[in-house]
Amino acid sequence: xxxxxxxxxxxxxxxxxxxxxxxxxxxxxxxxxxxxxxxxxxxxxxxxxxxxxxxxxxxxxxxxxxxxxxxxxxxxxxxxxxxxxxxxxxxxxxxxxxxxxxxxxxxxxxxxxxxxxxxxxxxxxxxxxxxxxxxxxxxxxxxxxxxxxxxxxxxxxxxxxxxxxxxxxxxxxxxxxxxxxxxxxxxxxxxxxxxxxxxxxxxxxxxxxxxxxxxxxxxxxxxxxxxxxxxxxxxxxxxxxxxxxxxxxxxxxxxxxxxxxxxxxxxxxxxxxxxxxxxxxxxxxxxxxxxxx
Amino acid sequence: xxxxxxxxxxxxxxxxxxxxxxxxxxxxxxxxxxxxxxxxxxxxxxxxxxxxxxxxxxxxxxxxxxxxxxxxxxxxxxxxxxxxxxxxxxxxxxxxxxxxxxxxxxxxxxxxxxxxxxxxxxxxxxxxxxxxxxxxxxxxxxxxxxxxxxxxxxxxxxxxxxxxxxxxxxxxxxxxxxxxxxxxxxxxxxxxxxxxxxxxxxxxxxxxxxxxxxxxxxxxxxxxxxxxxxxxxxxxxxxxxxxxxxxxxxxxxxxxxxxxxxxxxxxxxxxxxxxxxxxxxxxxxxxxxxxxxxxxxxxxxxxxxxxxxxxxxxxxxxxxxxxxxxxxxxxxxxxxxxxxxxxxxxxxxxxxxxxxxxxxxxxxxxxxxxxxxxxxxxxxxxxxxxxxxxxxxxxxxxxxxxxxxxxxxxxxxxxxxxxxxxxxxxxxxxxxxxxxxxxxxxxxxxxxxxxxxxxxxxxxxx
Lengths: 293, 462
Fold this sequence. Notes:
The complex is a heterodimer of chains A (about 290) and B (about 450). Chain A contains 13 helices and two strands. Chain A has helices spanning about 1-5, 10-35, 55-60, 65-95, 100-115, 115-130, 135-140, 150-180, 185-190, 195-225, 230-235, 250-255, 260-290; strands spanning about 40-45, 45-50. Chain A has a two-stranded antiparallel ribbon with strand order 1-2. Chain B is α/β, with parallel strands linked by helices and about 450 residues long. Chain B contains 21 helices and eleven strands. Chain B has a five-stranded mixed beta sheet. The two termini of chain B are about 30 Å apart.
């Protein structure tokens, strides 16, 4: 690709300029400022001093950060496969043309994505409620013990449920769009060869979906490691289950705005960003390697 | 910001103790080198009346961050008196969200308002960063006698500075369900011992009902209870010295009491201001709510189903012969040091809180519990008989409690951290019914570690 663009014309830079200005101002400048901040330490008493990489060293050894990262990693391993599998099934079902009311269903699955995550979490928080939540009320009516969605052992699953509910539709749309781009000749050729619907799905649709799946997986890596809104809101309902360092991102926020350790928070954020880049890159690399050259 | 603060000396402290008397604990605990050098950087000389008159006639626009609903009516009174000044009210969130925005604006060096609504407990976290304007040069000290004594010590700094003007308060009392008490033959508890007995009796009589809820995330209520018990958890002297004693004998007494009731399972420990908690109050799960004086108006709005069933009483006492009270909430108006119009901003802070008409408006339209002595003695205010409380003179009950609040309670300069640490130690112990007294030690350790990492000299409790 790059080879074709390598012949600069005089007007070229001018067209690029607006992008470059925005890129510098809105992306690189804050990033640079955060990097700069992360090299200092500001105390409430005693002012600011240059500490070099000390904040990063502290962060690497910080057990609260480590626990947060491990927790979101666990979350990722459990939640993302479930969500993508569901998204894939919905996309294939819609694409098969066998569903009635497919437009309504498509919209229905996508609608939760249009609900702001804050609202979604508040809603689920109410549904999960151990006293007056509908699930609790229902089990009370049936003389069953109330389900404890908001306890230590269930919390990660309850969070995963909210996130899945929110993002299945979004991922489904990406996969569905990719399915619609598959040329119909392929299906005709397969039909001539005697392939059934399952065979078509397995041998044509799935391989064609690989780039889209990689994309949704990348988004999920980023989303999981940035998990913030959902635990932050549920913390108000169950402060003894979700603490201020429950996820790495929540920890960075707490450091910046509760502890007023902006510099350390910047270092933690940078490390988290680095981790996301490494994991995303590793996924891309494996995905590309598997693809036939 | 001065790097080295002259360490306190015992002599000057004693001298000042004598000099300041009981006027202000802040002053009594001073001895910092701050008095003249750092707080007076703008000018600690009084501003002349001529300058004030001139400033109030110069066309000026002020920005005021506040979460008070419909504050435009109070602002209109100010603008009527000073037509040259226009005040723009901005709702930047209530409490912590506002403080977070304010801190960000202060760090960025632009976007901060001229005046800001700030709760008593948040004042030290903004004076430690030199963000508030000392209002003494603008004649605010003259208002002192108009305000309830303890509120004035809350807004006063360690060098006698006046950092804000009180607006409303929250002396703590007990709201209770007369019908539930009657049904189970429970007397209004006068002491904490009686309270504990009533908690056991009530829960035994009806396992779905608890005498009260001590929210495991509500550090403000805990501080109010500490305050009532006479604890002095934080004592700052100068700018860098702090004594932290959140696990002293008084705190342990509280910890054993509340932790014990939580372990017995005779009180609730669910987080407050959540859907579930509102539902619980509406449906009679809790027979009392220990709350600030803003609570009665708040409750009548959020537990409408229970109208007429509630009454108010003072808090149970540790020592019935020497009744005391703590405070939960209430706020002030402060002026941000970076303001370009300090005179007009300071005049606004004074006017809106001390002018009899605006003060009364806050009390009767926004249902704020007043901070001025005049209103607390005003028959038309304390004589109010709301139907929600069965016609009881609720304001009168709380006016009586207000007089019992200990003026010597102090807040730490990093309250947000203290609050988070409380929830994750003491609050957690209540929620999980583990050893609350031991959790107090964990809280103490966490705050101490944080204070040291922030450059404070942490002193052992006396």
